[in-house]
Amino acid sequence: FFPPEFQVAPETKAVMKWLRSIPFVLSASLHGGELVVTYPYDYSRHPMEEKMFSPTPDEKVFKMLAKAYADAHPVISDRSELRCGGNFVKRGGIINGAEWYSFTGGMADFNYLHTNCFEITVEVGCEKFPLEEELFTIWHENKGALLNYMEMVHRGIKGIVSDKFGNPIKNARISVRGIQHDVTTGN
């Protein structure tokens, strides 16, 4: 997943181990510096190509997840192009990460490729380092959107894969026709 010259920090290794040990299915990473919701892939299919649309096999699911957040956010859903993040208005406040800018080693890509977890990245505001007095407003702008996003965990297929005796099957591979990305059952 990482280029050979890339050194993985101990805390990164710890997060990777943690993600593989717990069967998360949905997550979000919160960033600052823009007002938009991005989804995988964050790394372009072609490493020399910047701003290249790079969809996962689950593109429709990721767009639905990103829109669930964006549509419930009072500023991201504001149709004014003059506001913070206004350059994403025509896209509904969402964008494929690599189409915005490509980078390697992102957590959303790692989660999708190496776990069962679907992760979006939420850019919560145009200031990279907001002032303390702005945090209360930022929290309230994002609270409803976060709750709406968390409710998305109940979408899709869920259940228990079991053998003929009713015993759960650990690490059973689940395939969906037309989507070339399998998931596995938890413990």
UniProtKB/TrEMBL annotation:
Stretches assigned to the Peptidase M14 domain: 1-153
Catalytic residue positions: E123
Q: Does the keyword Metal-binding apply?
A: yes
Family annotation (InterPro entries): CarboxyPept-like_regulatory, CARBOXYPEPT_ZN_2, Peptidase_M14, Peptidase_M14_domain
- GO biological process, alphabetically ordered: peptide metabolic process; protein processing
Q: Is the keyword Iron in the record?
A: no
Provide the alphabetized UniProt keywords.
Carboxypeptidase, Glycoprotein, Hydrolase, Metal-binding, Metalloprotease, Protease, Zinc
Show the PROSITE patterns listed in the entry: CARBOXYPEPT_ZN_2, PEPTIDASE_M14
Required cofactors, per record? Zn(2+)
- Annotated Gene Ontology cellular component terms: extracellular space
One matching Pfam family: Peptidase_M14
Give the Gene Ontology MF terms in alphabetical order.
metallocarboxypeptidase activity; zinc ion binding
Q: Which family does it belong to?
A: Belongs to the peptidase M14 family.
Name of this protein: CBPZ Carboxypeptidase
Q: Which gene encodes it?
A: Cpz
